[in-house]
Each structure stands twice: as C-alpha cells, then as structure tokens.
Amino acid sequence: MSANVIEVRGLRTQFGDHVVHEALDLDLRRGEILGVVGGSGTGKSVLLRTIVGLIRPAAGTVSVLGQDVRQLSGPAREALERRWGVMFQDGALFSALTVQENVEVPLRAVPGLDDAQRQALAQLKVSMAGLPWSANAKYPADLSGGMKKRAGLARALALDPEIVFLDEPTAGLDPIGADAFDRLIVALRDALNLSVFLVTHDLDTLHACCDRIAVLAEKKVLTTGTMAEMLDVQHPWVHEYFHGPRARAAVADKE
Ligand SMILES: Nc1ncnc2c1ncn2[C@@H]1O[C@H](COP(=O)(O)OP(=O)(O)OP(=O)(O)O)[C@@H](O)[C@H]1O
C-alpha cells in the first residue's frame, strides 16, 4: 500500500489564458495533516477542486487512493468519491434543509440504509463535529459561522471518508472558536485515521495541526516540509510569511 493517498504530478490548470498551476507536484501521505498555504490567488482552492474532480486539469495526473481520478467514470468514480469528504469554505450547506438533513444528503446514496438508520448516522456525525443535539433541527441561516463550519464538517464525515479536504476551516472564526476547531481536526484525524488536505491562511492552525506544510507560489508547490523546515526557506514570500509579525505571534502563543 502506497504511503501517499494523493499524488499530483505535472499538473497544469488554466482558465482561458490564465495559467494557475504549471508542473505542480504534490503528495498527501496517509494519516498526515498537510497544510496548504500561499498568497491570495495562488490557486489553493483550485488545487483542492481539481483533486476532487470539480475542475478538469489541462495537463498532468491526479491519483487519489491509487486511482487516476480522470480515468474513472460512473459507479467506479462514485465509489472513489465516497472515500473522501470535502468541507468547502462557506460550508456549502443547502439552506432549505436542516443540519441533520444536510448531513443525510450523502448518506442517501448508500444502498440498504433505511430512514431511521440514515437519521441516526447523520445525528452521530453532527455530534462528532462538536455540535449540540439541538443543532440537528436548525437551518443554516440560524447557525453562527463556527456552527456552519462544523455542520459542513459533519457532512464531510458522513460517509466515513479516508481523506478529508478542508478549505480554510478557521477563516472568519474568533480565536477561541478557531482554536477549538484546530483541536477537533487533530482529534478526528487521530480517532478516525484520516488523511487531511487543509487549505489555510491561519498560522495558528499550521502550528496546532499540521504535520507538513506545502507552499504554493510561482504556479507550483514551491516547497514542502515541517514548520521547522519552513523557517529555513529563503524564498521571499515564504520567509515573510513564516517570519513576519503574525508568525512570531503564533509561535509565541504556542510557547
Ligand atoms: N472558475 C474560475 N474561472 C476563472 N478563474 C478562476 C476560477 N476559479 C478560480 N479562478 C482563478 O484562479 C486563481 C486561483 O484561485 P483560488 O481561489 O484557487 O486562489 P486561492 O489561493 O484559494 O486564493 P484565496 O487564498 O484568496 O482563497 C485566481 O486568480 C482566480 O481568480
């Protein structure tokens, strides 16, 4: 079994003439939390969306759990998609459905689950995401930003995925809420043996959660490594990001 659950090789993505990624390589190792960082517009979300097959790359290969995403279609593709869960930046919840019903959506594709089993499983995921029982019956409009994110996480966990993609999970949260979310991510990874692809700008999250960091710049993954290794990278953006005032505050916070 490969140590990598995701392998991206030679990826090019573009919109018209605008090349976002060129010759991009990336690995996500089994069981790790990989933090994907980079300046605004460097293509972090586009990379996530390309890996899960929502954007078609212009060149290169994307292999997830040993299978080439682009080569699959129909039931084989659906079977692979059931092995990952995605939490989008804004939660991407259906506004007309309650939290529990939102989490039930992916479960509806599972054959053999009756209504009661599906509802019970959805409620379990809602509580695993750290939401109170009362959240099950609430609509997205009635939730705080942090609760919406947890509801999005519950839905991402619905099918017991092996890989979870998180797009800026702590963006817009207050520091206490963000800290709690960081701890939840690590606890879920440990309990469920997840591999996590985590797009973030949040230095505290990188410190608290990530085993490795991948930096997107110049259309590719410029460098990958641990937080300690990032501190020695001489590239101007990387240096500024990991040594700037916010980085110092994040380090001081952990000491
Ligand atoms: N559907 C699309 N059509 C055209 N251009 C797009 C599309 N989606 C993204 N882009 C462009 O691709 C580039 C990368 O966008 P992306 O959202 O991945 O950046 P990002 O690194 O996630 O940024 P941020 O940190 O601000 O969220 C941007 O220039 C964006 O305008």
TrEMBL record:
Superkingdom in the source lineage: Bacteria
Signal peptide per UniProt: none
Alphabetic keyword roster: ATP-binding, Nucleotide-binding, Transport
Pfam families: ABC_tran (PF00005)
CDD domains: ABC_Org_Solvent_Resistant
Limits of the ABC transporter domain: 6-243
GO molecular function: ATP binding
Name of protein: ABC transporter ATP-binding protein
